[in-house]
Input
Amino acid sequence: MATKQTQSAARLLAAPSIGLLLIWMIVPLGLTIYDSTLNYTLQGNPVHKFIGWTNYYYFVTDPAFLTSIWNTLVLVGSVLVISIVGGTGMALLLDQPIFGQGAARVMAISPFFIMATVAALVWKNLFMQPVFGLFAWIAHLFGAPPIDWFTNDPMIAVIIIVAWQWLPFATLILLTALQSLDLEQKDAAQMDGAPPLSYFWYLVLPHLARPATVVILIETIFLLGIFAEIFVTTGGGPGQATTNLTFLVFRSALRDFDVGGAAAGGIIAVVLANIVSIFLTRLVGKNLEG
Amino acid sequence: MGKISLQGVRKTFADVVVIPGVDLEIPAGSFVVFVGPSGCGKSTLLRLIAGLEDLSGGHVLIDDKDVSDFAPAQRGLSMVFQSYALYPHMSVASNIGFGLKMAGVPKPEIEKKVAYAANLLNLTEYLARRPGQLSGGQRQRVAIGRAIVREPKAFLFDEPLSNLDAALRVQMRLEITRLHQSLKTTMIYVTHDQVEAMTMADMIVVLNRGNIEQAGAPMELYETPKNLFVAKFIGSPTMNIIEGERAQKYGAPTIGIRPEHIRISREAGDWPVRVSIVERLGSDTFLYVEAEGMGQLTVRAEGDLGAKPGDQLFLSPDAGRLHRFNSEGKAIRS
Output
C-alpha cells in the first residue's frame, strides 16, 4: 500500500469498474435531465421542443407538489418513529429467554420478506376491507361501526402497512445490538442498584443509539421511494391524500403522459433526496464517531 | 465491619452441581483470595456473595445479618469485574458516581465523593473522558473508583488483573494492596494466579470443583498443605511429586519436595540425575532434570550454577521440608 507503484497500479486496476459505475449512474441521470428540458408528451406533437425551465416551473407550481412533499414527510417520519420505538420494544421482548425463542424471532422478522405489493393487497383486502375485512369484523364484535380505512384515513392506512413491513428490519438490527450488550455491565448496574427502568434508560438506550441511527439512515433511503403500497391500495387518493413525491412523478408520466414534466419532478426528487442524505450522513457520522 | 460468613452455600445449574456446599468465615477487614483452576467455582462463589446468582441452598451472612434474599445493591458490597464493565457512553465521573446517583445521593455530595475517589486513584485529570479513551490500567482504576465511592462493607474482585500486561499487573497488585491497607475494608479477590494469591492475601482459600481444599494464611498453605492438590497449586515452580519405590523409602506412598528445598551437588547425594533444561533468571536458575525412577524434577539453585544440559548431578532433598501424602492424597503429619 505504501509504495507509489502499488498506488498507481491500484488506481489503474480499479479504473474500469469505477468507469462502469460512472456510466451506470451518469447516463440515466443525463437522459432524465435532458428530458426535463423538453416539451415531451406522449400525446400530440411528436417533435420535442426545448423549453428550458418551463417543466420545472409547472411541476413546482402545481398545488399537488407541496401536498406530495408534505405527504412524503408524514409517511417517512411516521414509519421511522413507529419502527424505531416499536422495534426497540420488539427487540427487548425477543431478547428475553422464552420458550420457542427461535421460532418467535423468525415470525417477527418474516414480514420483511413479503413483497410490497403482496403485503399491501393482504392488508387492503383481508384486514382493512370495510365489509368483510378482519378489522371490520373486530369492530362489529364490539358493536362499533367499521372504519373505511382507505376512504377516511388513507394516510394512516398506508403508514400502518409500510410500518408493518419495516418494523421487522428495525427489530432485527436492534435485537442484534441488544445481544452485543456486555452482560458484565448489567451485573455492574445491578451492583450499582440501578432498577430496570434506569438500566434501560442509562445503559440500554445509549447502547442502541448507534444502530438506531443506522436504521434511520437506511429506512429513510427506502421510504422516500415508497410506491407499490400506494399504487396497490389508494392509487394516491382519495384526491391527493396519499400522493407522495414518487407517486406524483409516476402520475405525471403515465397518467398525464407528460414525460418532460415527470423528468423534471424526478430531478427535483433527486435533489431533495440528496439534501436529506447529506443531512443524515452527517448525523450518522457524528453518532458513529463517539 | 464487613464480616462475611457462608453457611452451607450450594449452587447448582440445572443438573450440574457447581458448589456442593461451602462453609467459610471471612473476618472483617481481611484480604481473602479465592484461588483455583478454571471451572473450580471461585467466580460463582463470588457472584453468590454479591447476589448476582441465586443460592441453591445455604445462607450468606454479612455482619451477622442473613442477606441471602437481598438484591445485590442492598447487600452493601462493591464489585470490580474482569472486563471492568465500565459504562462506555458515560464520562469517568459519571461512571464512578452512577451508583450514588441510583441511590438518590444529592449531586454536590456525589461530586465530592467522586473527587475524593479520583484523587485517591490519580484519576482527577481524566474525569471528563470516556472509558474508551483510557488505557487498561486507567480503566481498572475507574472500576475500582466506582467500587470505592459506595463505601461498601466489602470489595469483591473478579480476576481484575487478568486483562493487563505483566508489568502493569505487578503495579496494580501493589496499588490494590495499598488500597486495602488504607481503607481497611474486607476484600474478597478471585484469581487463578497463585502468585497474586500469595502476595496479596491475608487468607487464601484454595477451591477445587466447588470444594474448599484448604483455607489459611499464605505461608501456612505453603508450609503445611493439607493435600496434594494444595501442595501442587501453591508455590512456583510447582512442587515435585514422587511416587512409588523412591517415595516408600521416606515412608509414604507419595512424597512432595519443593524445587527450592533440594540441595545440589556435583559429587554425591541421594538422587543421581541428568540435567535436561536450564532456565536462568539471573537471581535464580531452574534446572529441569531427569531422575531414574522419578521422571522429571524441577530444582531451584541460587545464582548461576554453570550447569549444562547433559551434566550429571546429585540431589538431596531437605528431609525437614519433605511432604508426605497417603494414598488418598492427604498429608501425613508426624
Remarks:
- Chain A touches chain B at residues 182, 184-185, 187-195, 198, 202-203, 206-207, 209, 290 (CB under 8 Å).
